[in-house]
Amino acid sequence: MSVIAGTSTRREHGATAASHLALWGWSLVVVVPLIWTVLSSFKTTSEILDSPLSLPAHWSFDNYINAWAIAGIGGYFLNSVIVVTGGLVLTMTFGSMTAYVIARFEFPGRGLVRALILGGMTFPLFLAVVPLFFILQQLGLLNSLPGLIVVYGVFSYPFTVFFLSSFFADLPREVAEAAAIDGAGEWRTFFQVMLPMSAPGLAAVALLNFVGLWNQYLLPLVLNTDQTKFVLTQGMASFASQAGYSVDFGALFAGAVMTVLPVLVVYVIFQRRLQESVTQGSIK
Amino acid sequence: MAPSAPPLSVGADQESRPQPSARPVVQTPGSGRARQGRGRLSLILVFLVLPFSVYLALVVYPFVQSAWYSMTSWSGFSPDQPFIGLENYVTLLSDDRFRQAVGNSLLLLVIVPIFTLGSAYALACLVTFGGRSVGNVQGIAGSRFYSTVSFFPYVIPAIVIALMWNQIYDPDAGLLNGLLRAVGLDRLQQVWLGDPLTAMPASIVVMVWALIGFYTVLFVAALRGLPLEMFEAARLDGAGRVRMALAIALPNILTPARGAYVYMGIAALDAFLPMALLNPTGGPDFSTLVITQDIYLTAFREGKFGLACAMGVVLAALTFGFAGLLALVARFTERWTP
């Protein structure tokens, strides 16, 4: 090996430098738009319109205050927190239960259940959205946060079941047997033995669901048209479209930054696990 | 993942013991067994039947209903839903706007995965074995930093991505034209999203930008899962980085790559969020209109619910056709590779 290394050291350095250059180039493409957005969120609208590359003359949080108060980002933010939390609790509770049953028990129709779960993940959401509108209308759940919570929960259910069932299937069978010998019933086995053991899988799926639900736009767009109940993504979209005329661009950028912040915080805290879970889930 | 072995485990003498049957719970004698049975029944009822029924009612049923509505001329607000057979589908055949939308969606289906997966794989290879090729095969210095940065767009809400890029593409106040002016390339300035020629490519750039990181991380994990000796052996045989990436690593990660392609394809066929948010009206001359956006306009702006459902069925058919085609290709390639 040392022979190879000796003959090609210079080429080695060149190639490594080229790798770094390519990776740096890509990192810049990712980071520059983000930095530009943050910088713009501190500029006044006239500064933004004057020159895209200038720095803010005064650093102040006025735009943030305006976006929060005038554009009502605060209320949308709260709605998002409520709906996403509710949907997440629903999907994780029932998703993990169903995944457990599918992974560990034989029962007639299991193949069909699996197929329907997989179908729910594959079918374009758009196909369901029109009839869903009328179903919710009949149930009186249209334009309401509880309705949105149920819809968020039920539409992330197939994803949750699909990924968690592989986690449950991988748990050693002997554990359930041992629990049964010790006299634990099925329910206790699930809640006190199996669920804690699959905590890494649960956390991973919960994170992916959080990101997906926080960013959800189509479902609230169609099913929640009451402006006071808008979630954050809707609020931002309507803020941006009112724009056009006399938009407060500074506040718009500030709103964008505020929308990203919660996800950013979750991402930074759980970054490693999130990346791991993306790959674990997809490679299986 | 490796959950720590629980203290309950009794699997010490596994080999001398016959493997338990497929049923997970060991046969316990007498009353315990009956209790187990009841417990399992209530468990299945609450864990499976209850949530799955709600799922059937709110997810599966709408899909089925959609197929029915697609054969009616229902406007969405009238109480009657006149059955008109396949008329909606015939209408779609000669609907220029819809045909353009299908064309645009198919274009995305081809272009977006090629650029996204190609770049993501290249980046993943640089991160995993772009490092010094002296001594052990290893990742490039700072590989964690690069993955973290690259992954980041995945967690940004689509609405913010669209909002940001809308501003970047702004002809006067935008970052892109601003940068072009700053380096003296004024002539390259464009009304990026307002010109039928550039609107689609500009939108594709945004989609690829948002997706690359996710697939980079996926490929990095797949590559890290390969045995190190394989790379060492290839290195000893004098394989360079490019040979390593294409001839050694790629054939061994075809399964995750195919999975990535299916996800990617489904996302590209949907594409509602980036497209509707970047170009709310379908772009200049409908040059960026995609099927999902056409469905939204047809159903909720024009009140033609029956027709919109027919579009949804066409989209579902395309999605399944695409996934099925890939499964077929997979079956053949598996048969022909040793």
Description:
- The complex is a heterodimer of chains A (284) and B (338).
- With 284 residues, chain A is mostly helical.
- Chain A is 80% helix and 0% strand.
- Chain A is globular.
- Chain A starts with a helix and ends with a helix.
- Chain B is mainly alpha-helical.
- Chain B has helices at residues 31-69, 87-93, 96-129, 143-151, 158-168, 175-182, 196-224, 228-236, 241-249, 254-270, 272-278, 291-301, 305-336.
- Chains A and B meet through helix 2, helix 3, helix 5, helix 6 and helix 7 of A and helix 1, helix 3, helix 4, helix 5 and helix 6 of B.
Spans of chain B of 5+ residues with little confidence (pLDDT < 50)?
1-30
Alpha-carbon Rg of chain A, integer: 24 Å
Quick one: how many beta strands of chain B? 0
Structural class of chain A comes to mainly alpha
Q: Please state the oligomeric state of the protein chains shown.
A: heterodimer
Sum this structure up briefly.
Chain A is an all-alpha fold. Chain A has helices at residues 2-7, 9-40, 45-50, 62-69, 73-104, 110-122, 125-139, 145-170, 173-181, 186-197, 199-214, 218-223, 232-243, 249-283. Chain B has helices at residues 31-69, 87-93, 96-129, 143-151, 158-168, 175-182, 196-224, 228-236, 241-249, 254-270, 272-278, 291-301, 305-336.
Describe the SSE topology:
The complex is a heterodimer of chains A (284) and B (338).
Chain A: H1 2-7, H2 9-40, H3 45-50, H4 62-69, H5 73-104, H6 110-122, H7 125-139, H8 145-170, H9 173-181, H10 186-197, H11 199-214, H12 218-223, H13 232-243, H14 249-283
Helix pairs in contact in A: 4-14, 5-8, 5-11, 5-13, 6-8, 8-11, 9-10, 11-14, 13-14
Chain B: H1 31-69, H2 87-93, H3 96-129, H4 143-151, H5 158-168, H6 175-182, H7 196-224, H8 228-236, H9 241-249, H10 254-270, H11 272-278, H12 291-301, H13 305-336
Helix pairs in contact in B: 1-13, 2-13, 3-7, 3-10, 3-12, 4-7, 5-11, 10-13, 12-13
